[in-house]
Design brief:
The complex is a heterodimer of chains A (about 300) and B (about 375). With about 300 residues, chain A is mostly helical. Chain A is about 75% helix and about 0% strand. A two-stranded antiparallel sheet of chain A has the order 1-2. In chain A, helix 3 crosses helix 13 and helix 9 crosses helix 10. The radius of gyration of chain A is 25 Å and the shape is globular. The longest helix of chain B has 18 residues. The two termini of chain B are about 40 Å apart. The chains are: A mainly alpha (about 300), B alpha+beta (about 375). Chains A and B meet through helix 9 and helix 10 of A and strand 6 and helix 2 of B. Bound molecules: adenosine-5'-triphosphate (ATP) and magnesium ion. Magnesium ion binds next to helix 1 of chain B.
């Protein structure tokens, strides 16, 4: 098939987009991560300088090294931050899954004419700023906040709970913020499930509970996987939630990166942290892509 | 010679399923209206009717997915209403098949037996047997989406049959198949039913299919039973115009009852023509409107007035439908009403020498048609 110039341009556009807005910045960050810290502006060495010709390029390449990565590997702070991020992201994903599945299930079982409205309600929070919603949680979770006041007045607790600035608050924040990303894909698979399958299961002698585990759950697995990836991947690099709701015990790589970049002004090290994070995320992202592809072929 | 299979005619026989005055309402709408019906062991019972007449609703009540608003359904004389679908000795083959897409053919079929807690050795044996019966052995490890429509339908059948239900419900089981495969499968179904001796209730809106497979047919109309009878009775002795019209081709002539004696009645159907003679054993009241239902194959078409025919009317040929083995002539009578006459083409359709616009006579014997009062 031959393409007209117009068609070629159309095909080239997304690639151009990726090149300018993804690949180029990535290469720049990669380059900075291989540079050395310098008291200068920008705060790293070497700078790319074409005025000295080939000799300049050779000297430039020569000056690049991987010592920032070596440093990351040697200082347990970073490894712990990565591991802790993975753990927090994993636990949050599991909690989000349990709550999100229940919500999605209820949505899919709701009367048909209510469903669009209910789905709308799930998406509604996106209409307010993410930052404001996280700030709102500070108001709810702090010692003299709404939650403690409510629990105290009901008499469930004798003295206020310390939730804000702990990992618990981070879990609450992540679960709350990412819940729609779990609910929507799970709902999509549950909603399109043929209800006669459950009747067939009942007809063949299974209880409602058995039918759920033998039919509903396996058939919703693609949605569950998609939801888990959609929550897990961004949760690893999350910065705002641990920064605002977490405390000194909360160790997450997004926060570490922020500190290196803004407080220590160590751009090269911060870049190395970012590159390693990216490398870590590539594994689940590739798995996610593969799963989505299989989905498409399957249907 | 053994007596023909007809437990419904035997007053001593007790039915397997007894549907007693069952009504099903969805809101204010009555999908099934005070319906009573007995179905006997080993029957192949067909429910036939136009779309939306309540066939699926009736089946779903038998399976337990809907509860009757009024009335009761009894199995072996025991009320089924407190028994949930999972506990009924009744299995259903769904209109959409409802195969589990994530399970292989084998596992789909074994699903019901596993739920019963059948020992795994026996499960394997029964699944293998039933797969052989429905010719699925080669597809045991395939998933439903890797099967053709006909194969899927057989998986659905096997999955329901393997549980050895007392009653198997089939809701339009062959709807998705093309005509040839449909006919083959009809005979397969009949063989399977005969082999296993299970009682089958099949829903269809294909009257030919119902006639082919079943021992008795219930014709439904708007939630009610129009008639329940054997295929031959239904075709030859319909009780209403609806049934006569629904089963096969028919000509219905409206008239007024002008006379009645021991062997039949006369019907004044057309001005200027002699009254039509009909043999009937239920004598209609004089002067009332009644209808004569004539099957096209009982009507003879001739170029000239036939000698000695009980009934003969003149007309012109309006249309000829050539069906290969048969030709159906649509003959317009003097007042415009159309009578269908069917002739065999054993000696070739052209030999008859009748063509469009020809003036012809249609004739039939007095016992050819049925006199209907509804
Ligand atoms: N759950 C329901 N709620 C309301 N009305 C219903 C429901 N199920 C069926 N009906 C109505 O009851 C009537 C009978 O439906 P049913 O499905 O039994 O028809 P059917 O004879 O099986 O038709 P088809 O040949 O098209 O399958 C229809 O008018 C249908 O709209
Ligand atoms: Mg139906």
């Amino acid at each position: 098939m031959t393409r007209t110039p117009g068609q070629r341009l159309l095909v080239a556009l997304p690639y151009l987009w990726l090149l300018v807005l993804f690949l180029a910045p990535f290469l720049i960050v990669l380059k900075i991560s291989l540079s050395d810290l310098a008291v200068a502006r920008p705060p790293y060495m070497p700078q790319f300088d074409l005025s000295e010709g080939w000799a300049g390029v050779a000297a430039f390449v020569d000056a690049l090294d991987v010592e920032n990565y070596v440093f990351l590997a040697e200082d347990s702070l970073y490894i712990n931050a990565y591991l802790s991020s993975l753990r927090i992201a994993a636990i949050s994903t599991v909690i989000t899954l349990l709550i999100g599945y229940a919500i999605a299930y209820a949505l899919a079982r709701a009367p048909r004419r209510w469903r669009p409205t209910l789905v709308m309600l799930v998406i509604l929070p996106f209409w307010t700023s993410f930052l404001i919603r996280v700030y709102a949680w500070i108001g709810i979770l702090k010692t003299e906040g709404l939650l403690n006041q409510a629990l105290l007045s009901v008499g469930l607790i004798g003295e206020p709970l310390t939730i804000l600035n702990t990992n618990t608050a981070v879990y609450i924040g992540i679960v709350y913020s990412y819940l729609p990303f779990m609910v929507l894909p799970v709902y999509a698979t549950l909603e399109k499930m043929d209800e006669s399958l459950l009747e067939a299961a009942a007809d063949l002698g299974s209880s409602r509970l058995a039918a759920f585990f033998l039919v509903t759950l396996p058939l919703s697995l693609p949605g569950v996987l998609a939801g888990c990836f959609l929550v897990f991947i961004p949760a690893i690099g999350e910065f705002v939630i641990p920064d605002l709701l977490g405390g000194s015990e909360t160790l997450m790589i997004g926060k570490t990166l922020w500190v290196e970049f803004f407080n220590n002004r160590d751009w090269p090290l911060a870049s190395a942290v970012a590159i390693v994070l990216l490398a870590l995320l590539i594994v689940p992202i590739v798995l996610f892509q593969r799963q989505q592809m299989r989905q498409e072929i399957g249907t | 010679m053994t007596a023909p299979f007809a437990p419904w005619a035997d007053p001593a026989a007790s039915p397997l399923i007894e549907i007693r005055d069952v009504t099903k309402r969805f809101g204010a709408f009555e999908a099934v209206k005070s319906l009573s019906l007995n179905i006997y062991e080993r029957e192949f019972f067909a429910i036939l009717g136009p779309s939306g007449c309540g066939k699926t609703t009736l089946m779903r009540m038998l399976a337990g997915f809907e509860t009757p608003s009024e009335g009761a359904i009894l199995l072996d004389g025991e009320d089924l209403s407190p028994v949930p679908p999972a506990k009924r000795p009744v299995n259903m083959m769904f209109q959409s098949y409802a195969l589990f897409p994530h399970l292989t053919v084998e596992k789909n079929i074994a699903f019901g037996l596993k739920r019963e807690g059948t020992p795994s050795g026996e499960i394997a044996e029964r699944v293998t047997d039933i797969m052989r019966l429905v010719q699925l052995t080669d597809f045991a490890r395939r998933k439903p989406d890797q099967l053709s429509g006909g194969q899927r339908q057989r998986v659905a059948l096997a999955r329901a049959l393997v549980k050895r239900p007392r009653l198997l419900l089939l809701d339009e089981p062959l709807g998705a198949l093309d005509k040839k495969l449909r006919q083959e499968t009809q005979f397969e179904l009949m063989n399977i039913q005969e082999t296993l001796g299970t009682t089958f209730v099949i829903v269809t809106h294909d009257q030919e299919e119902a006639m082919t497979v079943s021992s008795r047919i219930a014709v439904m109309r708007a939630g009610e039973l129009a008639q329940v009878a054997t295929p031959a009775d239904l075709y030859e002795r319909p009780e209403s115009r609806f049934v006569a019209d629904f089963i096969g081709e028919v000509t219905i002539l409206e008239g007024r009852v002008s006379g009645a004696d021991a062997v039949g009645a006369t019907l004044s159907a057309m001005e200027g023509a002699p009254d039509l003679r009909v043999a009937t054993d239920t004598l209609p009241p004089l002067g009332e409107t009644a209808w004569l239902a004539l099957r096209p194959e009982t009507v003879t078409i001739t170029p000239d007035r036939p000698e000695g025919a009980d009934n003969a009317l003149p007309g012109t040929v309006l249309d000829i439908a050539y069906l290969g083995n048969l030709s159906t002539y649509h003959v317009a009578l003097a007042d415009g009403r159309v009578v269908k006459a069917q002739e065999s083409n054993r000696f070739g359709a052209n030999r008859r020498g009748i063509t469009w616009e020809d003036a012809v006579w249609v004739s039939w014997e007095e016992d050819a048609g049925v006199l209907l009062q509804a």
